[in-house]
Amino acid sequence: MSVSDADKLITSDDQDHPANLIPALCAKFWTLGWVTGTGGGCSIRDDDLVYLAPSGVQKELMKPADIYVLSLSAQDPTQPQQRSYLRSPPSYRPSQCTPLFLAAFTRRGAGCCIHTHSQWAVLVTLLLEQHEEANRNVFEVNNIEQIKGFGRGPGKAGNLGYHDTLRIPVIENTPHEEDLTEYLEEAMEAYPDTYAVLVRRHGVYVWGDNVHKAKTQCESLDYLFQLAVEMKKLGIPWISDIPRIAADRT
After folding, report:
1. 87 lies in the same domain as 137
2. What is the mean pLDDT of the chain?
3. How far apart are the C-alpha atoms of 104 and 19, rounded to whole Å?
4. For position 1, what pLDDT does the model report?
5. Do residues 86 and 178 both lie within one domain?
6. Residues 87 and 151 in one domain
7. Is 97 annotated as a binding residue?
8. Is residue 145 part of a domain?
9. Of 104, 149, 177, 178, which is least surrounded by CB within 10 A?
10. How far is CA 149 from the centre of its chain?
11. CB count, 10 Å around CB of 165?
12. Which residue from 25, 8, 7 is spatially nearest to 16, judged by alpha carbons?
């Protein structure tokens, strides 16, 4: 593919085109403290095409010209270090988040994956370190309204309810981000209904069927993480047993 043809992949007047949407989303995430200091990122899948934020770019200053594009079907899963791109920006390197984003697309059929370095996500993983071994690798919370922001799981109808328990697995951090991939995939297998994985002392990966759902779930999670930290300060447990005052609707 020629340079001019490659650049056509990231050139559009449509504000919802992935090459325009990723910089806009990352600029918003920067204001929330999710992608400080070039950390974090976002990727969007449009059928077979995957659009990715690069490594080392200040996310609030990112432009469409900074975006990488690859064909999902053209990748050789046995040669992850030899990833091929349809379009590469001249000034940056591919993000080390790339294989984790691709895991969300190939294993969950996601349309968007967001990675944040939210302080609330990091604090929740630190609080979980203080739990017993059996409970330190999953964040659980119930009886909170914002839980309704999450689907019941891939292929399942409807969202979680107020009284349901939201469970987000936690994996340990590694010195190099791409080395997290196998542990993220293991967490996906162990928690088939999850739309997110926390990385201890690092951040969180959140995905959804499309950009809207991924963003909504990421915002809902950050709200719940902040709430969980404040609840811990007040000695309020994340899991509670409260009476139902109305029946569930089917």
Report:
1. no
2. 94
3. 19
4. 56
5. no
6. no
7. yes
8. yes
9. 178
10. 15
11. 12
12. 25
112 annotated to bind ligand: no
Q: DSSP of 7-28, one letter per residue? A: HHTT--S-TTSHHHHHHHHHHH
Q: How far apart are CA 110 and CA 63, in angstroms?
A: 23
Query: What CATH number is given to the structural domain containing 81?
Result: 3.40.225.10
Residue 7 has pLDDT above 80, yes or no: yes
135-165 pLDDT, tens digit per residue, is 899 999 999 999 999 999 988 999 999 999 9
Judge whether 26 is annotated as a binding position: no
For 177, the token pair is: 């981000």
> What is the residue type of 93?
R
Residue 104 lies in a domain: no
pLDDT digits (tens, 9 = 90+) for 10-20: 999 999 999 99
- Over the stretch 187-231, which tens digit does the pLDDT of each residue have? 999 999 999 999 999 999 999 999 999 999 999 999 999 999 999
The answer to whether residues 67 and 128 belong to one domain is no
Query: Do residues 90 and 201 share a domain?
Result: no
Would the annotation count 218 as a binding residue?
no
Token pair of 51, please? 């659009």
Q: How many domains does one find in the chain?
A: 2
248 band by pLDDT with thresholds 50, 70 and 90: confident
For every residue of 168-225, DSSP letters joined together read EEEE---SSGGGGHHHHHHHHHH-TT-SEEEETTTEEEEEESSHHHHHHHHHHHHHHH
Say yes or no: 61 and 22 in one domain.
Answer: yes
Positions annotated as catalytic residues are 145
Does residue 187 contact residue 197 with C-beta atoms inside 8 Å? yes
By residue range, what is the domain housing residue 223?
Answer: 118-238
Pair 81, 182 in one domain:
no
pLDDT tens for residues 50-94?
A: 999 999 899 999 999 999 999 999 998 777 778 899 999 988 999
